[in-house]
Amino acid sequence: MKKHFLTWFAIWAGIALLVLLLAPKDKESILTGLALAASLSLFFMLKNLLQSWSGKIEEIFDKTYTSDDEDGVTNQKTVTFAKVLLTNGKTKKVHFQSGWKVGDKLQKTRGEYQIKVLT
Asked: From CA 53, how far away is CA 87, in angstroms rounded?
């Protein structure tokens, strides 16, 4: 997990350095926004890394999301999910990864991003 944190820090420090070097005016408000973005990304990174679970894929399904922009153009995006029955009896919806099939056993280990297929 230390490697992930160091990578996160290096990326955000590099972005902050570029802002300091290239931003012509109002660097303070830009850096404040940058700090907020970095804090949010750290939160979501840690949330993902600290998760630990295992379970079996019960269902693979598609969900279509629709959004309208200011010009009235409608956009649709279809995302494939896997419904996983966890060992504690709860269900979890995770983004589908190619090669998964119903019945596969999945494991998400603390400190890793990847979900492993056990069968």
From this structure: 8
Q: Is 99 left (phi over 0), alpha (psi -120 to 50) or beta?
A: left
Here the tokens at position 114 are 């990847």
Q: How far apart, in whole angstroms, are the C-alpha atoms of residue 64 and residue 43?
A: 27
Give the sign of the dihedral formed by CA 7, CA 8, CA 9, CA 12: positive
**Sheet holding 115-117: strands in order across?**
91-95, 74-86, 53-68, 105-108, 115-117
| First-to-last C-alpha distance (Å) of the chain | 26
- pLDDT classification of 28: cutoffs 50, 70, 90: confident
β-pair partners for 62: 80
Residues 6+ away with beta carbon under 8 Å from 76: 64, 65, 66
pTM greater than 0.85 (yes/no)? no
pLDDT tens profile 38-92 = 999 999 999 989 999 999 999 999 999 999 888 888 999 999 999 999 999 999 9
